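Tutorial, part two.
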Amino acid sequence: MILAGDIGGTNARLALLVADEVRFEERYGSTDYAGLDALIARFLERARAGLGRAPRVDRACFGVAGSVTGARVKVTNLPWEIDARALEREFGIERVALVNDFVASAYGIEALAAADLVTLQPGEPDAGAPRVLIGAGTGLGVAYVVPERGGPRVVPSEGGHVGFAPADEEQAALWRYLHARLGRVEAEHVVSGPGLVRIYEHLREVARHPVSLALERELAADDPAAAISRHALEHADPLAAEALDLFITCFGGIAGDHALSVLARGGVYLAGGIAPKIRARLAAGGFIAAFDAKAGFAPLARAMPVQLVLNERLGLLGAARAATL
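Running the prediction step on this input gives:
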């Protein structure tokens, strides 16, 4: 039995699995706990009640939003420092592994079923070629999957922090707006939840569309990126829709750049918290048009399959697989 965790700065999901079958799973608010050890203790207590017996955990792996160094990690946006060896001793687990959350998600690709995916571009798949996993949420995560004889190898990256390269004058205007406020403009400054808010604020200054007072109130009281998406998709707000469409074209261009850099004929997978929520807009064509807009290399970009991942358990499934490596 494997204990797998997908640990973020806001939410944490834990599960007990045998192979890829989830036996018990719960979601928690990360900030409600002083550390991962307290969270595990609570989860195992709940699992004992739910399963009718105390679970015997053989191995554990946690995908953590943070930079992992050996057996330790400092969680981004949480005052948690996690030590895998200390967790082994405290809970009597044979081996505890810590990996970056996007590395865990990349391992989870192999566990996905057809129903977990929406094809945005069929391409010309090559099972022996690299894959790219890219996802926007609080930040922009990128990982690469390289096929090897003993199984896929995941290559972590800080690809969300590459420089943002504008593809046209509209994006260049956005770059100038962000550069004046941030200095070096990174891909994550544009393609992320905070990035969508920055795009909206830039377009609000441009003033091509009227400002919705209802949306402005929600920006101050709610998750602002979610409010912008909601007003674009459900209320046809022209300013919010323009912001979301610009976000999507930037996302497509950046995803295509990463795919081109490793010749990702094995497939490009869109994950993260934002993409499934804007599924219809992603499928409308703007994303793939930007993905494929690679001048002389456009035919190569069109040969790369692009899939939207719907399964929210991707990180858990991947952490469970990483625990057996």
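The two ends are 14 Å apart (CA to CA). In part three we will examine how such features are distributed along the chain.
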